[in-house]
Amino acid sequence: MPRMKLTAAAVERIKPLLTGRVEYFDATVPALGLRVSARGVKSWIYFGRVAGKQRRVTLGRWPSMTLADARKAAGGAAEAMREGHDLTAEKRAAAAQQAKPDRDLVENVIADWLERDQAKNRSAAESARIMNKEVLPFWRGRHIWEITRRDAIEIIDRVVDRGSPTMARRLHAYLHRLFRWARGRGIVEANPMADLPKPGKETKRTRVLDDNELRVVWKAAEAIGWPFGPLVRLLVLTGARRGEIGEARWREVDIDGAAIRLEGGRTKNGEPHTIPLSMPALAIIGALPRIASGEDAASDYVFTVTGKSPVSGWGRAKAILDAKVDALRIEAAGGSAETVAPMPGWRFHDIRRTVATGLQRLGHRLEVIEAVLGHIGGSRSGIVGVYQRYGFDDEARAALEAWGAHVAQLTGGTPARVIPLRR
After folding, report:
1. d(CA 281, CA 270)
2. What is the pLDDT of residues 333-379, one digit of tens each?
3. How many structural domains does the chain have?
4. Are residues 82 and 121 both part of a single domain?
5. Long-range interactions of 68-71: CB distance < 8 A, separation 24+
6. How many of the other CB atoms lie within 10 Å of CB of 15?
7. Residue 43 maps to which CATH number?
8. Whole-structure pTM over 0.85, yes or no?
9. Phi then psi dihedrals of residue 48, to 5 deg
10. Residue 16 belongs to what domain range?
11. Is the separation of the CB atoms in 70 and 59 below 8 Å?
């Protein structure tokens, strides 16, 4: 460790060694040194003591830090060490803190919320999709505690203004839950969504397919074939949600017990649910192909085209089904597209309402219909749901058998005769 009287010219003239590094200490400020690496990098270092232990601090690099600047920095380091500051440890801590992600950025809080609060919900994928599409493009890079009530209103209004009031209401609900969760964890002091009215009015759907419409939808489903043809027919026979059938796995199908048995993670309300399978439903399942997921293994998904994931593309499937429905209606009327009006708009979820209405028309009790649908609200909500634990399994099975017979008679070309049950 050579010691020399450093000057600006001397520092510039110092050449590196072929290997290793060398440190030149300043005769004017003895604890100040110039470290020169084999690559020619020159750094200013300072040696001092904190609590009796020697510490080395890197002050900066030459030529960005001149000799005069280094001597001043050495004086500051000496004073800080006398006051008990371990500059090396503090520098490491600051670097480590800087390397950590900023946990309060909106994107990081949302990621944490999705993992901790939403992961077990059936709508977890939807909440992630909405946040990625509607929120992050506008709030990314901002701290969540910077988000104001006005920011929230603007982002919701943006969705309303593009003509999507239902999506805006859904976004409102997700943002409210996000900020309520963040407030509970001390990330924000207040929830900017508190008492913020939802946009517009929720439109409650009442669409029910009549017998003629149900018949033509059934026949159209038969015509379009695998995979959505049998899938739609099972929706008609069970009244189940499309995800409960569309994402069904063979291990959930109990052929001997004539049922699809869903665990809580597969239902909207988080409760296990058994979907009875009538004779027509069993016949459809028995005719389904088993798609391979590999060279030898069959896929566990009932409805799949890849073997690795359940079917997707419901929108495209609905368009194909609607086109076939209109073609069948035109054929039955002996007219043309100009003379036969298309069937009034409907959604897959309307099938579920149609089944519930049909079961009521057949004379089944409300509790039984709710058991078929897997509802825990209505007649089983509140204190009744706590103490009334009877599941109406046998009654639900009988109801769907009767409904299956009704659908079979209806779609066979003979108008179904409705025989009310005795109450």
Report:
1. 25
2. 888 888 888 899 999 999 999 999 999 999 999 999 999 999 865 54
3. 3
4. no
5. 68/8, 70/32, 70/34, 70/44, 71/26, 71/28, 71/29, 71/32
6. 8
7. 3.30.160.390
8. no
9. -150, -175
10. 3-99
11. yes
